[in-house]
């Protein structure tokens, strides 16, 4: 169990650094769930749990000062416990959601602690001491990593051996309810994403996808290909219309300038008279 906890903690480090740095999307639940499943010896189940959590958390993002639920810790712990319990995505989702919300507060605390390094960097910058500013950035990242790694390590070490026994004691009616909830939550994730992305002129593209699925019985890959084709032609038409619009605006500005010039000449003639 110790080796498993170490490997899952290492995945947490990689995902946290990616989220706060290069953003190669290694922090997404689909990836972290798959990696956690590989560590737990069941890659397929890890991929299924990660994909379920990915759909559920599609619209979860940090905007401004808002700190979203900790999807990294939630996905890794949820996947690990889902595989340990033998209940799959049902248990994984049931554990991942509360874990993500609880560790969200730890993320807020870590970023609050990072204000210390921010103040140190500002003071050094004011006096021209720039040698340690980079170090402060790395130390602030290390603080965030610690606040994510410790919960994952402790959860696996202390709770791993109790997970299977705990879920065996849960009545079937509750597990069935959790299974239904696990099927609904991805739809909520899509709704959150559409709420952010959809503009007035974009509903037609959603309708195209619905028609392809409902009446054309197309698989997801086929709908994605149709989406790429539609996006290509949409971008091509839009790029052709933009120069024409700019030319029209330029012509209007030239006409307005000529009218202003003619008016100025008329005013000068009136003045000469």
Automatic annotation (TrEMBL):
It holds the Pfam family EII-Sor. One of its GO terms (biological process) is phosphoenolpyruvate-dependent sugar phosphotransferase system. One of its GO terms (cellular component) is plasma membrane. It is a multi-pass membrane protein. Residues 243-273 are annotated as: Disordered. The keyword Zinc does not apply. It comes from the Bacteria. It is found in: Cell membrane. Residues 249-273 have a biased composition (Acidic residues). The chain crosses the membrane at residues 31-53, 138-158, 178-198, 205-234. Keywords: Cell membrane, Membrane, Phosphotransferase system, Sugar transport, Transmembrane, Transmembrane helix, Transport. Its main location: membrane. This is PTS sugar transporter subunit IIC.
């Amino acid at each position: 169990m110790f080796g498993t906890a170490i490997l899952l903690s290492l995945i947490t480090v990689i995902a946290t650094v990616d989220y706060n740095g290069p953003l190669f999307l290694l922090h997404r639940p689909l990836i972290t769930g798959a990696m956690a499943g590989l560590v737990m010896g069941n890659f397929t189940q890890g991929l299924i749990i990660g994909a379920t959590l990915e759909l559920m958390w599609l619209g979860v993002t940090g905007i401004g000062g808002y700190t979203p639920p900790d999807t990294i810790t939630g996905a890794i712990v949820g996947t690990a416990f889902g595989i340990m319990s033998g209940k799959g995505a049902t248990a994984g989702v049931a554990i991942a959601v509360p874990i993500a919300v609880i560790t969200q507060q730890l993320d807020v605390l870590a970023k609050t602690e990072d204000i210390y390094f921010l103040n140190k960097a500002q003071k050094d910058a004011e006096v021209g001491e720039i040698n340690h500013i980079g170090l402060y950035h790395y130390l602030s990242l290390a603080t965030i990593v610690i606040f994510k790694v410790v919960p994952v390590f402790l959860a696996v070490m202390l709770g791993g051996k109790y997970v299977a026994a705990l879920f065996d004691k849960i009545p079937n009616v509750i597990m069935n309810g959790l299974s239904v909830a696990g099927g609904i939550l991805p739809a909520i994730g899509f709704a959150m994403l559409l709420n952010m992305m959809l503009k007035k002129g974009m509903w037609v593209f959603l309708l195209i996808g619905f028609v392809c699925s409902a009446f054309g019985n197309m698989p997801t890959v086929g709908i994605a290909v149709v989406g790429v084709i539609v996006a290509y032609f949409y971008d091509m038409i839009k790029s052709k219309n933009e120069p024409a619009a700019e030319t029209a605006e330029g012509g209007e500005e030239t006409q307005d300038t000529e009218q202003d010039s003619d008016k100025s000449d008329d005013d000068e003639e009136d003045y000469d008279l």
